[in-house]
DNA sequence: GCTTGGATGCAGTAACGGTTAAAGGTACGA
DNA sequence: TCGTACCTTTAACCGTTACTGCATCCAAGC
């Protein structure tokens, strides 16, 4: 009787292309994977792996067997989902992928709640780039993604994935104390006309914050002066505190501002919307529904 | 990750209706099966078995899981067949069911050849009633059946099974020495007209030999006098030797006749045809094709 | 009542399946 | 050409698993 664990090892080797990569993916040492497959070869009396240079190559029989393994694993996963659904309690492993701010500002409290309320759920966190989250969900690397879009560039409904809105995250303009705009903001909310002509501190190109700034200012005919680029919020805040420029920053995960940095509201306020994404059908898992519920429930009200 | 061995245990319990029956079918002790399923219950955090009187009953979740297990096991069996086919050498377990005479007269030499030529094949023999063999093949209890029909009642091509002819087994009339028919047979072959009016020794009702006798004599307007009924050939021969009557007996597995018993040829000769039966697609297994080949090759020429 | 048949719990044991450490082999660079 | 780095495999070791055998418990039947 073929063993499922061994077939899973073969499948992992087939997918990742090497014994070591498969071992990492499975959480074993390469030695263990190698032995599993050697045992599978003995049991089936078939050569599955052939050494090719420094690595290995799968034989035809191995590729066919790996395809069968994939089929089996899909059925097993389906069965496990059904069991969890029937039981109604979150169980098993749930890998959540979240972008940096959500990982800092939202996930700790969510993960703590999950751990407290559902001890048999093994929830894990992976900080991922929001652009990659759709693919990572599809590939099965993560089961649930926390992603976001931006008011001027809504997230297209991902092909064959389901989603729910977690909440809306508002943006303020960070300025050093004593900045001219602080006096303006004391009288009225800042408008987009107030933004051109500043030295900007923002994220590197390719990030949504960067794009928002460029597109919004260009729409009013100006090219923003992106003088300082840093990925981390704290770095940006430090640059603002040093009086080097102004920054646009969402409230989620921003943390308390140091003395000498002010958060000024904008009108209309830039907003990004946070979503949870999962594979179609995965909502049958209580683990998914419960986590999505907690994400929305624990979404800080002050954000919106 | 659900374990296939445990799922197989659950499936066996589901099929056989009790832990002990499942254990027998799987070749374990009931304790082992009970522990397997207890572990499966812990892993899935689901109740699968409930005590019902002296036995057990499956929960809804267990029935659903057993159905999934069946699906998985079918895929695994298919994969194992493909592996054996690719390798081209008989391997794995092959359960052969044969009716009594074939088990005695044909299978020993076939099994010995298989064991000698294919050490990695685990061939097993089960003596089965020929009427049941079609069902047993369909149920998967046996992988290959050696069955037979009778010239006046050909075996209908079994629904959804494949077959091959092994050979033809001829029948003689056994009489005690000094019986009047012995003198007739010395001059010419016996004909059906010589048969009525004898005291018959034959198998119990329901067996093919019994049916052949009754139908053949009734066709010529006579009711046979079935004075002595015994299932075993040797018993019948002993009854003939004691001068109690005559018997019709196929040559396969008949063994040497004791002094005082003669085998007289009939014209036309009653003949039964031996078949090998297997599930459709199973012929992809070299184990099946090789065994069928040996069955036909080692079929004793003197029989036909 | 006792007996029978079946499921389960427990102790013991053999085999399995992992890790670490060391040993091939191959490609790449000095 | 040799050394190095990388990957796979092997060997030794060890904790865990998964059987068996036996005892126990429960329900049904005599």
Multimerization state: homodimer
**Unreliable residue stretches of chain A:** none
Q: What would you call the shape of chain A? A: elongated
* SS class of chain A: alpha/beta
- Total E-strand runs of chain A: 11
Q: Helix and strand succession of chain A?
A: HHHEEHEHHEHEEHEHEHEEEH
- According to CATH, what is the topology of the largest domain in chain A? D-Maltodextrin-Binding Protein, domain 2
SS element count, helices of chain A: 11
- Biggest contact: A-B, 28 and 28 residues
Distance between the termini of chain A: 57 Å
Overall number of domains of chain A: 3
CATH superfamily of the largest domain in chain A: Periplasmic binding protein-like II
Beta fraction of the residues of chain A? 15-25%
Q: Mean of the pLDDT scores of chain A? A: 91
Major beta sheet of chain A, specifics?
A: 9 strands, mixed
